[in-house]
Amino acid sequence: MVDPLTKRYSRDRFVSSFVGFVPADDPKIALVVVIHEPRGQIYGGLVAAPVFKKIASESLSYLSVPRDDYQERGLLLVSNDNGRAKALASAGSAPGHPGVQNLS
To answer: What is the pTM of this model?
Structure first.
């Protein structure tokens, strides 16, 4: 965020965000989650992604869209220690999805 006094980027005020769509193969929902001045963690993968997951899950349920379970296709979504989301897949278990894909 820009500090209104110095007119420069602040060193301690942030905006964290996460953008996604679900289900991956036939999107029904596109969603942007923006957290203004998060406390504690600042990375979108750690702060905004869990909000995305909750909203998307509830919305898909409400719309009666069948679940696209990544674990059934051999994919596991994770967030590493610096907040970047990654999709991990075993070789050949998910057509069109290479072994490791950085989503951030």
So the answer is: 0.62
